[in-house]
Amino acid sequence: MLAHPALEGLTYHVKTFGCQMNLHDSERVSGVLGACGCVEVGTPEEADIVVYMTCCVREKADTHLYGQVSAMVSAPKPPSGRRIVAVGGCIAQRDGGDIREHMPNVDVVFGTRAVGSLPELIEDALRGNGTLATDTSEDDPRFSTDLPSRREASWHAWVPIMTGCNNFCSYCIVPYVRGRERDRRFEDIVSEVERLKADGVREVCLLGQNVNSFGRQRYGAPRFAELLRAVGETGIERIRFTSSHPKDLSDETIAAMAETDAVMPQLHLAVQSGSTKVLKAMNRHYTREDFISLAGRIKDANPGIALSTDIIVGFPGETEEDFEQTLSLVREVGFASAFTFIYSKRPGTPAAKIDDPTPREVIQGRFDRLAELVADLAYEANQSELGATVEALVEGPSKRNPNVLVGHSPKNKTVLFDVPDGREASELVGKLVDVRADEAKTWYLRGPMVGEPR
Ligand code: SAM
Ligand code: SF4
Ligand code: F3S
């Protein structure tokens, strides 16, 4: 228990925007507040402390947050009569105290390296008379993993292996808000996975903005391949990892993926564009041909692997011809799924200085064409599994129907099945089950559970 008497017994709610980094940091926020004696509640309206973990990777994320925080001003006060609004994550790191210009009712601002300071900041805010409590320091030597964590799921764990990014892709704000790459110790990662396994965790996702360069800072050479093998040796059943930068994905890593049974046959590898000219302007350090050849090597070593990607449409200067190259690369590589984004100007990044006369409707048209192609490919990939028995790690009931359970297959496909007669949904959550894929739609496989859960 952390000694912060003023916080004991207060209720809290954490709302998370953005990527897996923030999802994991939110688990640390819950862990730290839980260790101070705070109690989690299901909605922000009931909570004495509302924490927003924010994202600024695209403009929409910014405006979304302003709306949510403003709504909190008019929400009825909790039973204690006082509500603390804390903003953490990437917008907090970027804007610091300036956040109050947009959101005057914020009490606490804590940056991406200040989760450990949150209890003191909340205490300051409770003591202070409306003054803002802030910590956006960049030099906290602690890795967030030193802090207590409250995992969202008993069977799944995020395991950070590095933070920050040194790549400075010309459109991206992340290196400015998450700082430079910092690696966690190899031994600490492996022993955490051992502990998690002993605690009943079945799937880990190794996390970092650029996991392939893991080890370069600390050991002078990338050691991600060795880490994958060592994590595999712990006996954990499923290993995933994200994000991978194509320029740093080595042949050693491809071999380690193929030779480590627990590494799932799925890889997220952001291509961003299919045009070498645009990739250069994005500062990605690979060509269209490099990416296609890399994807080929990955598929040769890992037959049947499902590749997914991120693509930005409408980067400044992208022509129709460049975009056609993106479409043809997506077809040639045959991604099983893709996250597609319209380019969003991020002040402070190099690309923000490039003017682009391309009309918004033209970019939207390209985006729609790409989305259609991605959906067609996802449908084809799922059709290839029609009638097959797929394993799913069960996560919980679907949002629409409590009698339908949702899980993910080794290839990370969404799998749906009805709770079999005579069983409770709750007894299947966290179990591995086999499902016969009688239906194969664009975004899911569905059918009856067969055999016994494990
Ligand atoms: N480090 C990871 C990587 O390189 O794969 C993830 C980076 S970011 C959190 C996730 C995705 O957001 C990127 O891959 C990119 O496609 C997209 N993105 C980043 N900045 C963007 C921007 N300014 N506009 C639109 N999309 C952006
Ligand atoms: Fe952003 Fe590029 Fe770093 Fe990914 S690799 S976080 S896209 S700068
Ligand atoms: Fe967003 Fe920060 Fe992640 S900007 S995408 S939450 S690293």
Descriptive overview:
By secondary structure, the protein is an alpha/beta fold. The chain has 15 helices and 21 strands. The chain has a seven-stranded mixed sheet. The model has no long low-confidence stretch (mean pLDDT 93). S-adenosylmethionine (SAM) binds next to β13.
What's the structural blueprint in terms of helices and strands?
Elements: E1 11-16, H1 20-35, E2 39-40, E3 49-54, H2 59-74, E4 84-88, H3 89-95, H4 99-102, E5 108-110, H5 118-127, E6 133-135, E7 156-160, E8 162-163, H6 174-178, E9 182-183, H7 186-198, E10 203-207, H8 216-219, H9 224-233, E11 238-242, H10 251-259, E12 266-268, H11 276-281, H12 288-301, E13 306-313, H13 320-333, E14 337-342, H14 360-383, E15 389-397, E16 404-408, E17 414-418, H15 425-428, E18 432-436, E19 439-440, E20 445-446, E21 449-450
Parallel strand pairs: 1-2, 1-3, 3-4, 4-5, 5-6, 7-10, 10-11, 12-13, 13-14, 17-20
Antiparallel strand pairs: 8-9, 15-16, 15-18, 16-17, 18-21, 19-20
Bound molecules: S-adenosylmethionine (SAM), iron/sulfur cluster and FE3-S4 cluster (F3S).
Iron/sulfur cluster (SF4) is lined by residues 165, 167-169, 172, 174-175, 209-210, 245.
Query: What is the makeup of the main sheet?
Result: 7 strands, mixed
Alpha-carbon distance between the two ends: 35 Å
Low-pLDDT segments, ≥5 res = none
| Radius of gyration from the alpha-carbon trace, in angstroms | 23 Å
Across the major sheet, the strand order is 19-20-17-16-15-18-21
Number of separate helices = 15
DSSP E strands, number: 21
Give the ligands present. Answer: S-adenosylmethionine, iron/sulfur cluster, FE3-S4 cluster
What amount of the residues lies in strands? 15-25%
